[in-house]
Write a structure and sequence with these properties.
With 276 residues, the chain is α+β, with helices and mostly antiparallel strands. It folds into 2 domains: 9-80 and 130-272, 2-Layer Sandwich (Alpha-Beta Plaits), CATH 3.30.70; 87-121. 30% of the residues lie in helices and 22% in strands. The protein has helices spanning 52-70, 92-103, 110-121, 124-129, 198-212, 244-250, 260-272; strands at residues 9-19, 49-50, 138-140, 143-144, 155-164, 169-181, 186-194, 229-240. β5 (155-164) and β6 form a beta hairpin. α1 packs across α5 (198-212), α2 packs across α3 (110-121) and α5 (198-212) packs across α7 (260-272). The relative contact order is 0.23. The structure holds zinc ion. The site of zinc ion has 9 residues, from α4.
Length: 276
């Protein structure tokens, strides 16, 4: 476990997300007088963007799916954060009294031991993306449109048809429309990670690979088609103790072209848990 109070390392991953199909990331509420039922969320220039929280949600979902396939405790598994969380609020008292007992025999504080215990009981997804117990070590920035000048139109209105849950069939009278961003739109993706182990970076790169292969959809309508895109131009930069001074001098971290270290660390972790 890396201590949270010290920055051991920081990574930046940048990429371009190019939409193959339309994108529907709705703001859910139209405040425009002629607005559609579900407009796309826009920045102050009226251009679409994808909120970092939406990207993180999608990315976490796919990381959890991968971890559930591996499913090896203590390091490579994912809980169900809503139904069956790895550390329940009710576990707090028993973990705290264990920490208090242990603190009598150790030089560490009760808080430090407690934090370590919660971390040990937590699944890999909560350790990376956060839980009610600790902050996320990965942040997704809002992704802004890169190529508005190349796109003749930015938006298209589509018709949606509500499905009657009882009949399982489209029923007239519950039609609605929603706004989408046109296919071909490119968004600038930026991810920042702090104090990640090499194997955790390898795990992230594996999920990014899925995305660059076109296997991940974004947005509320993904089951009906929109939201599919591919990641291109993925670049990784990393700062740690060995190049911290250079980073501070130059204000930018050098790109890491060799990802084998991280991929190998992830493979080694898989082997360690007996699932290679
Ligand atoms: Zn969890």
């Amino acid at each position: 476990m890396k201590p949270f109070s010290v920055i051991e390392n920081r990574i930046w991953i940048s990429a371009t997300l190019e939409m193959q199909t339309a994108l529907a990331v709705g703001s859910r509420l139209s405040i425009e007088p002629t607005g559609t039922d579900m407009p796309v969320i826009k920045d102050t220039n009226g251009r679409p963007f994808i909120p970092g929280s939406s990207l993180k949600g999608v990315f976490r979902f796919h990381t959890e799916r991968l971890l559930r396939t591996i499913d090896r405790k203590p390091d490579l598994w994912a809980c169900d954060p809503f139904g069956d969380p790895c550390v329940r609020p009710a576990d707090k008292d028993s973990l705290m009294s264990q920490a208090e007992r242990q603190a009598k025999h150790e030089s560490q504080s009760v808080d430090a031991i407690f934090a370590k215990m919660v971390f040990q009981h937590s699944c890999a997804a909560c350790r990376l993306f956060g839980s009610p117990w600790f902050a996320s070590r990965i942040a997704f920035k809002d992704a802004y449109l890169k190529n508005h000048e190349d796109l003749p139109v930015l938006y298209q209105i589509r018709d949606g048809v509500g499905i009657d849950r009882d009949l399982g069939a489209a029923r007239s009278g519950i039609k609605y429309d929603f706004e989408t961003v046109v296919p071909g739109a490119q968004f600038a993706i930026e991810i920042v990670g702090e104090n990640l182990e090499d194997w955790e970076i390898g795990l992230l790169l594996t999920v990014l690979q899925l995305w660059s292969d076109g296997g991940i959809a974004i947005g509320g309508k993904s089951t009906r088609g929109p939201g599919w895109g591919t990641l291109r131009e993925i670049a990784l930069r990393r700062v740690d103790r060995t190049n911290l001074l250079d980073y501070l001098r130059q204000r930018s971290a050098p790109p890491v072209s060799d990802w084998e270290t991280f991929r190998n660390a992830f493979s080694a972790k898989l082997q360690e848990v007996g699932h290679a």
